[in-house]
Amino acid sequence: MGTKTSFRYALVTPTKNEVNRIPKLINSMMLQKSKPIFWVFVDGKSTDGTFSLLRQLQKEQDFVQVISNDEEMTPDPDRYGTVVKKGVDFLVKLCYEKNLELDYIGIVDSDVILGKSYFEKLIRAFLCDSKLGLVSGAIFEQSDKEMILRRSLSNDLFCASAMMFKMECYESIGGFPTMVGPEVVAVAKVIQRGWKVVGVPDAVAIHTRSSASRRGRWNGFVKCGETFYKLNLHPINAVLTGIYFTFCGCYPFSGPSIAGPAYLYGYLRSVIRRKSKVSDPEVVNYFWNSWNRLVARVRQKIGKL
Fold it and tell me: Of 118, 173, 245, 294, which is the most buried if we count CB atoms within 10 A?
């Protein structure tokens, strides 16, 4: 049996009123050496000309598809997963009808600018490690004064703003989650299935808007705290995260921030109001056991001293 030498990928981009930002994403895609077989935009009833712009792009580019979401899309993370899944389901059906095998599927926010050969570099990473299931590049966030490299609290480069699944991995988690916090749930499920999640440092992209700026910074992190409560994050981990955000900012070494108080307020308010949590046992157990994983990492660090 011969070795496969060509690989197909496709993209989904949810969008709502991004007429000033989405041309930058489109231009950066047109400069990519390797194009997707399909790029599906799911528009949430835009009123600023975004939908018309995308329809025109569809006429000009054979690989572009534009669909409308049945309901108005909002930046509410509780609904983001449903919008993405609608785009992916449409994409998978399209590939099936055209008898095309899909190797990788990417999800890209509409306010991202892709660096040179972005997806080509992600695919190269997949080919170097068969256990990789979900990857992203190094995502820089554009602030008023400088470009900040986004990292998780574990100092990992992975960022959901421009991520790519191996199709086998995507299918193993049952498709894109539609519950609250779908990106972090997807990561949790990928890890639970034994796949690796990494950021690829030489694949670079720019997020032109702060991840919390749609709602305003305070409200954005209040929602973040509420989301992690609903996912059943262990209270000790929630408090430690809030403290970290307060004194170190929302990214490593970015300085003091209101993110911490906002995050804690969102989490503790949800505790007091006894808001409902997700019902998926796998997700509930994963985030509750985050405390045990943190203790294990600390012991491992101490053991190396």
Answer: 118
pTM of the model: 0.88
Residue 193: C-alpha distances to residues 22, 92, 97, 163, 287 (Å): 34, 22, 29, 18, 15
Half-sphere exposure for 124 (CA within 13 Å, toward CB): 11
Is the distance from CB of 195 to CB of 163 less than 8 angstroms? no
| pLDDT, tens digit (0-9, with 9 covering 90-100), for 195-230 | 999 999 999 999 887 655 555 678 888 999 999 999
Q: What is the pLDDT of residues 257-296, one digit of tens each?
A: 788 899 999 999 999 999 999 999 999 999 998 887 767 7
Q: What residues contact 103, with CB distance under 8 A and at least 6 apart?
A: 7, 8, 9, 123, 166, 167
Is residue 136 within 8 Å of residue 163, measured between CB atoms? Answer: yes
Reference 200, options 107, 252, 134, 143; nearest CA is 134
Beta bridge partners of 185: none
- Domains annotated for the chain, with CATH where assigned, are 9-207 (3.90.550.10), 217-303 (no CATH)
